[in-house]
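> run fold Alpha-1,4 glucan phosphorylase
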Amino acid sequence: MATNASPPLQLATAFRPLASATAGGGGLLAGGGIATGRGFRGRTTHRRVGARSVASDRDVQGPVSPEEGFSTVLNSIDSSAIASNIKHHAEFKPLFSPEHFSPLKAYHATAKSVLDALLINWNATYDYYNKTNVKQAYYLSMEFLQGRALTNAIGNLELTGEYAEALKQLGHNLEDVTSQEPDAALGNGGLGRLASCFLDSLATLNYPAWGYGLRYKYGLFKQLITKDGQEEIAENWLEMGYPWEIVRNDVSYAVKFYGKVVEGTDGRKHWIGGENIKAVAHDVPIPGYKTRTTNNLRLWSTTVPAQDFDLGAFNAGDHTKAYEAHLNAEKICHVLYPGDESPEGKVLRLKQQYTLCSASLQDIIARFESRAGDSLNWEDFPSKVAVQMNDTHPTLCIPELMRILIDFKGLSWDEAWSITERTVAYTNHTVLPEALEKWSLDIMQKLLPRHVEIIEQIDEELMNSIVSKYGTTDTALLKKKLKEMRILDNVDLPASIAQLFVKPKEKKESPTKSKKKLLVKSLETIDEVEEKTELEEEEAEVLSETEEEKVESEEIEAAEKEDSEGELDPFVKSDPKLPRVVRMANLCVVGGHSVNGVAEIHSEIVKQDVFNSFYEMWPTKFQNKTNGVTPRRWMRFCNPELSSIISKWIGSDDWVLNTDKLAELKRFASNEDLHSEWRAAKWANKMKVVSLIRDKTGYIVSPDAMFDVQVKRIHEYKRQLLNILGIVYRYKKMKEMSAEQRVKSFVPRVCIFGGKAFATYIQAKRIVKFITDVAATVNHDSDIGDLLKVIFVPDYNVSVAEALIPASELSQHISTAGMEASGTSNMKFAMNGCILIGTLDGANVEIREEVGEENFFLFGAEAHEIVGLRKERAEGKFVPDPRFEEVKAFVRSGVFGTYNYDELMGSLEGNEGYGRADYFLVGKDFPSYIECQQKVDEAYRDQKLWTKMSILNTAGSSKFSSDRTIHEYAKDIWDINPVNLP
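> ok
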């Protein structure tokens, strides 16, 4: 037997993880119990403590973290030792058959080897947090788009070279092994990518913080592109296992739905009955760059205890009933954003959001109690815990924290509200009305009855605050503010507020007295006094004097009562024809101490438009935190060629941690040697994308062409339609020219699209279909050849982005002004030396300021013009540009196939109506857009100018590091400080 391989257990000591776990999930290894563990240095002992689950009233056991022995020497590990450890995992922790050491098997073994290294620092980090009882931030998000973990982890550990060499010794290539890793399907778009960048920066900057999310079994969906456009199938990212997670079966919390609320003899509210599930923790380590700090992303899966399986029903043959409880629990974490057109879909989405909030808060509270020990004081909670709600999805954190503090911890309403308000903060990510979530009050009432009670009380107290601020004199103003600011919409006003809107009625006389006055007036008019006397006598015969007095008294009393009650303004009552809803964004603003937008222009829109009334009431709550992206994943690791050049010319790689140093590139922006190296790096990256496009689409593209890229979620406001119509116009003009004219008039382009349309968003799916139809026609047109290619890359994700962004030369960020909150891909493109074409929207505004106006291609209407332009359209005053009419007619001519595009083109026509009237102003901006694209062609022909613009984009992008953003959150919102491990 050959013995040339190193012994497989050589790294057993060096990589042995600490088997620690704190109460409530502070430690990070599954298991628990009394254990000892040796890190690289030192020896520790653990003791068990317990924490109580507030929902299930049961103990969660786990050992307290060690206090010593955290030193590591990872950088001293050589490739032979790593190879030995990888081989150990392949042989003794097998997930695959032993016949051969396949790339997939090598990936899993390598990942486990890296995880061994991470666990040392992972446990050390939280052991120290527990020991020092520092204030910790918790970032709650429905999405975390992490991308592949292997490249990022070994890069942050500074072991990329060693792992490459180790795999080479084992007969594998690092790039081939890393390509085996599927992207974790835990998000959809920018929201999830931002959250993941934040986790990276938090760890890198040594801030104590955790992320919380859901562990989706199938994610959003895997996108297939067929002749019919986009088709969706379930993601399979978990089918081969996920080696980066530790399943924490010892950390779970009960989560309740339905049931009823009763008041106990102790005076407290009790939520009883209903449906109970169990949320189980799955932990994923988040390593920082050049630091031992390794933070945690905790994901929740959902299930029920084994006893909920109906064995009797199963044995009786009713298998569906037997498994019903498990299915109801597990489907909560099956799919990201399940379709909510049906009542069942709405309930499932609300269950997802509440599961995230309830399990996470129970976990946070258990950790707070464990760390506080005997000195527990709930008033300290906001000084130890900061909860950030990433968009409105985690809004239920507010009533859930109130519920736990009041119902389980015995605090008063005022005490609980003060704690909640000082703990929770809200990041707004949208100005789109449909994205500001509104939940059916009726559905919430059934699913979360106790939370509705709390929300109703918050709503009433909010209204009292509004009345106090604006008074009752100007009822029109008061009605306006209540309508805008209430949390509950189309819900009757409570009696205390309703009484402010009573219209006094005119005082009425009794019919008897009125009749007498009428008779007197009539008789006096004709001077028939005698007749008057006779009529009075007749009246007396009908009603005796006693009876008359009685009737008159009753009538007066009724009139006075009616006068005192008055008439209620219809404003105080709900409209039965309209739904009753809970406005989650309003609840976020009311219940938190901070509200921030994610770009300067967006934050101004939030203050002046979206939440203007709240801003008037609480101006100090509102902040801006311009988004950022991590320069590790989005430059250092995904673009090593360019990163090496930057480090060479700057003189160090310090820019990876301090992006301000990128500005030093400006000194060399005209240097021809740098230009030559810069273009060579871009060429190398383009060649990788040529291979990617061939593999994913079958199309062959030329690396000599400009790579023009728009990759993002497919949405009408992001205006992929404007882009593809511009391409159609370009193609039409090419077809009208001779071959010589084409070459003179246009530079070669490869126009690349990527992104998913939500499964039920019909118009977005039409856009995908249209792009692919244009591609099929253009790419097979021999007259055009390499002068124009159109590519739709299927199933766009982080890994695809990591390939496309370094290779891109022009990137399109062309949303209707005022509709994109920020964007983060625009930052990634600029960092990688890509020049942007875009509107003054979101972070484009700040990018243009930083990189220089001359290095950004600007077009289109500005945000302050949009309302007027839509009004112009509604009034029938808009006159479309002839070129826009020309391109629509060309599409309708059938040149791109037999599909009927009347609905798509019709959305750009008319002056009003749902799905019409060009709400996103494609037609308005089309002339400006195609003229700007001509400027792009002119600039690209001058490669010296273009390369200088590219360098200056990278040099000016330092502001857009997520490190800067996180420093601002930590200082201005969370009040947390870096913690350096000893």
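The first helix runs from residue 79 to 92.
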